[in-house]
Amino acid sequence: MSGSGPSGPASDIRDRVDGYLREAGLTSAAVRVVPLTGDASDRRYFRLILKQAPTMVLAVHAGPIRFADLPFANVRELFAQVPLPVPSILGYSEACGIVALQDLGDVTLQAHLGAASPGEHAALYREAVALIERLQRRGAELASSRFLPYGIAFDVAKLTWEMDYFVRHFLEGYRGLALSSAEREALAGEWATLAEELASEPRVVCHRDYHSRNLMLCDGHLYLIDFQDARLGPDTYDLVSLLRDSYVDLSDEQLDDLIAYFLALKGTSNVGAFRRRFDVMAVQRNLKALGTFGFQTTSRQNPVYIQYMPRTLQYVKRTIGRSSRFGRLHQLLAARIDELR
């Protein structure tokens, strides 16, 4: 291992990994420690290859941890009770700041779709949709203050902050636009309407980042990762994350079929009303994603997300063009974003 990263210099990480191996009695069994691509957090990930034993993944935090206080551990316990397919925890070291996890491999849903047949594609998405319905249904039954997601929600303040994030990091930061005070005021009015509408909906437990890069394909089934930010939100939230995913193209026909499947699982047939709520959530979610991509590109000097902007903008265009409900917002955004005209 060489260089440095968000969890500190490589020498510090190596020392802590070696410390974990000693604590776990794995020093003699370890063959290799291989760096893995991480997420946008301060964690680093490594695959531990062992002699005559399954591999495992080491999540290396920025410093020492208290395992019981980790949101990941708390939410994982809730999700396991649902039950949802989540990685097993194989061990941890609080002093070393390391959690050892079941190795789910390297194949995300996004990566697999390129090689999947149409039938496999459809089956995997139905499986993913069914997991959302299970989380919402069982999440309501398991509600308890001991689990973090029940104490935090997508409220007006959070949703508005995310819209402002889009303005700050995509329009201004990435596109370099100088908005007039009149434009800012008009957009603020649109954000307020969106946020109030979404925050007033009945709340369910949401994964919070339920898309094709956070669903791993292992032994023929999907597993959930990156769920530590789970919270309460609209029942459209995770479905929008999956079906209006910046990393995957889904046709309108596929979208309609999967929404109908979700509603069938929920035992409701009011597709029109649900689709209207879905579209409002989709606008908010996709604009927030553009803000994230802009932030990663300009503030983190990470250009990998630029390739996902065109698809996300196309989703926004298709959604706001579906209904006069978005007429004013469409007008405001199209005046500044060529792709939305």
Major sheet: size, sense and barrel closure?
A: 5 strands, antiparallel
- The amount of beta strand, in percent, is 5-15%
Record field, number of beta strands: 11
The N- to C-terminal Cα distance equals: 48 Å
Can you describe what's shown?
Strand 1 and strand 2 (8-9) form a beta hairpin. The strands form 4 sheets. A 5-stranded antiparallel sheet has the order 3-4-5-7-6, covered by helices on one side. Strands 1-2 form a two-stranded antiparallel ribbon. Helices cover 48% and strands 14% of the residues. It is globular. The N and C termini lie far apart (48 Å). Helix 4 (118-141) runs parallel beside helix 8 (252-266), helix 5 (156-174) runs antiparallel to helix 6 and helix 5 crosses helix 9 (271-298). The longest helix is centred in the C-terminal third of the chain and has 28 residues, at 271-298. Mean pLDDT is 95; it is low at 1-7. The protein is of the alpha+beta class. The chain has 11 helices and 11 strands.
Keywords:
11 helices; 341 residues; globular; two-stranded antiparallel ribbon; disordered N terminus; alpha+beta; 5-stranded antiparallel beta sheet
Summarize the entry for a quick read.
With 341 residues, this protein is an alpha+beta fold. The protein has helices at residues 10-23, 71-81, 109-113, 118-141, 156-174, 181-199, 237-243, 252-266, 271-298, 309-320, 327-334, and strands at residues 4-5, 8-9, 30-36, 44-50, 56-60, 89-93, 98-102, 203-206, 215-218, 221-224, 231-234. Strands 3-4-5-7-6 form a 5-stranded antiparallel sheet, with helices on one face. It has a two-stranded antiparallel ribbon with strand order 1-2. Strands 8-11 form a two-stranded antiparallel ribbon.
